[in-house]
Design goal:
By secondary structure, the protein is an alpha/beta fold. The chain has 2 domains: about 250 residues, Rossmann fold; about 90 residues. About 40% of the residues lie in helices and about 20% in strands. The strands form 2 sheets. It has a 5-stranded mixed barrel, surrounded by 5 helices. Helix 8 runs antiparallel to helix 9 and helix 10 runs antiparallel to helix 11. The longest helix is centred in the middle third of the chain and has 23 residues. It is elongated, with a radius of gyration of 24 Å.
């Protein structure tokens, strides 16, 4: 599994564009069957995203979700877009994370009427915990238009094959009768959830922005541009969630992957030396930067090391080792250090050392962070 890559799928182009606008370093990835993915990063983070447009309906969503899973072996799959809200306490623009997904069109027709045959998939526990953590923070709302304060709700989502735009139709009554805890309704989540289930329970998280109330007012809310607004809110939450899943290891089933996204082979190395021969290096699986006989001044890739520090810093905050104020200050110093690494102007070394030393003072109580910083500072001091 490639725990550093998250697949994000959308049904509508406006949903796709909302996610795409939050990605950098995009490149085109063509599947042999013609599907086009764009692979990029969330901001300057180490979280990579493979983004695809699947179209409307559970069936195409299932097929292309399966295709993405096979192509990228991702740490998780997020389905992101808009939905109709079913509960009055959920406002237009709010975000819903599916705690459970109902395929509500399953049933049996008998002489005394149609009876439901429920099929449902629950969000994996670890992904649910991470999503709640993201929801408790205001960080994911950064960059949203001034005055936007969408709430986040967790609850079941009903996924069918038709657009519901009535509160009194036969389908609306069916939902209330058999799935009355559903807080939103849409058309793709069941297909993606089934694909995840068939791929060794690959984590699937559905994130929806509420763009209408599924009560006959859809044309009005669409006319007030609630679809793009809701899509942007869902994209903001989903990309924040993707970053946390990667930082956490997603590992839910985490196995380190190679640069092509495929799982590494499990290796056993056995070296035998005879006579005057010597074994110089013996290694199994190695993760991270390794230098053998390299110039000591260049034994650490500064950019990669600072990126690793950012992940460690975030994890220390998540684990409660750093309070919010300290974490925010440390992030600022790390941002400055990142800029200094790519700066070619005079005084780069001095500015970089100051930022790293200030950062060390902020995280001195976190042993692993302090040790990593000490090694980086030593390398910087040796720079010309």
């Amino acid at each position: 599994m490639n725990s550093g890559l998250i697949v994000i799928l959308t049904a509508l182009n406006l949903e796709y564009e909302a996610v795409r606008g939050r990605l950098t370093d995009l490149r085109l990835h063509r599947h042999a069957a013609g599907t086009r993915f764009e692979v990029g990063r969330i901001g300057q983070s180490d979280c990579r995203v493979a983004l695809a447009l699947v179209g409307m309906g559970n069936h195409p969503a299932a097929v292309l979700a399966e295709r993405a899973m096979a192509e990228f072996s991702p740490g998780a799959v997020l389905f992101v877009g808009v939905a109709g809200g079913l509960w009055p306490n959920i406002r237009l623009g709010d975000v819903v994370v599916a705690s459970k997904i109902y395929a509500y069109h399953g049933g049996t027709s008998e002489n005394d009427g149609l009876k439901a045959r429920p099929k449902a998939w629950e969000i994996p526990h670890e992904a649910d915990q991470i999503a709640h953590h993201v929801a408790r923070s205001n960080d994911w709302r950064r960059g949203l238009p001034a005055g936007s304060a969408p709430g986040v709700h967790f609850g079941p989502i009903a996924a069918g094959e038709v657009v519901q735009d009535s509160a009194i139709s036969e389908q609306a009554r069916w939902i209330r009768q058999h799935y009355n805890d559903a807080v939103a309704i849409e058309m793709e989540a069941a297909g993606v959830a089934q694909a995840g289930h068939l791929n060794r329970a690959l984590p699937v998280v559905v994130v929806r922005g509420i763009s209408d109330r599924a009560d006959g007012s859809k044309s009005t809310t669409d006319g007030r541009n609630w679809q793009p607004k809701a899509a942007h809110h869902a994209a903001a939450f989903a990309t924040a969630l993707a970053r946390e899943l990667v930082i956490d290891g997603t590992g839910i089933r985490s196995v380190a992957a190679g640069p092509d996204g495929r799982e590494p082979m499990h290796m056993t190395n056995r070296n035998v030396a005879t006579g005057n021969a010597r074994v110089g290096v013996q290694a199994g699986q190695i993760h991270g930067n390794v230098n053998v006989g390299a110039d000591p001044d260049r034994s650490i890739d500064l950019a990669a090391s600072i990126a690793d520090l950012r992940n460690l810093l975030k994890q220390a905050h998540l684990d409660g080792h750093l309070d919010q104020e300290t974490y925010t200050a440390a992030e600022s110093e790390l941002d400055l250090a990142t800029v200094c690494v790519t700066d070619s102007s005079t005084g780069k070394k001095s500015r970089l050392l100051v930022a790293l030393k200030r950062l060390r003072g902020l995280v001195a109580d976190v042993t692993e962070l302090a040790a990593r910083l000490a090694a980086i500072i030593a390398v910087v001091k040796g720079m010309p």
